[in-house]
Amino acid sequence: MQRYNAPSDSFRSGFLLLWINALLFVFALNSHATSTEKQQLQAIEIAGISINTSSEMIAGILQAQGYKQINESLYTKQEQAHSGRNAIYRVEIENTATFHQITYSRSLGGGRVKSPIVHDAPVPASEIDMAQQLYRAVCTNTSAEIQKERSCEPLTSANIRFGHGQWIQSDAHFAVLLDATNASTTIGIKHTP
């Protein structure tokens, strides 16, 4: 006996086909977004170096900016800041067989007369580009759900932050850290191949 395809059967088949195509499209978009984010994270320079910078070049790049090498993975420098205080900069580089990580931090220290922190003062010009690049790579061109999951705070000139200032996993291969204000900054990228 031959089965007759009722209009509802062809509607179900068409709907199922449309639904499968929509899922494939969403997966393709997410894959492209993840690939774009990965490329951006690999290219972002923190204190002039990126995850892709060869180990042999790192010391020269940082020393040209006034950093002193403390040990094989730590570089520091101090500069006079406002109100008699010192800006203390640290760059830590970890290149192991299992991961590559760059962490940059700046804090204020020293000085007898400590001025109050101005909460709406902008992030220093020397840091704003790298902080905004990292923020945009992690928090823009993503869904509202991902932005909420990553705790992306509104981008302002005085506060550039996500993840409540803690390391967050952006995908299977990258963890990122961003907390930039006028008073202090911490920026990090960790890549696990």
Describe the structure.
The chain has helices at 7-43, 55-64, 125-139, 144-149; strands spanning 68-69, 74-80, 86-95, 100-109, 160-162, 168-169, 174-180, 185-191. The protein starts with 6 loop residues before the first helix and ends with a strand. Strands 1, 2, 3, 4, 5, 6, 7 and 8 form an 8-stranded antiparallel beta sheet that branches. Helices cover 35% and strands 25% of the residues. The protein has 193 residues and is of the alpha+beta class. Residues 21-33 have low confidence and may be disordered. The protein has 4 helices and 8 strands. A hairpin with a 4-residue loop joins strand 7 (174-180) and strand 8. Helix 1 (7-43) packs antiparallel against helix 3 (125-139). The chain is flat, with a radius of gyration of 23 Å.
Write a compact overview of the structure shown:
The protein is α+β, with helices and mostly antiparallel strands.
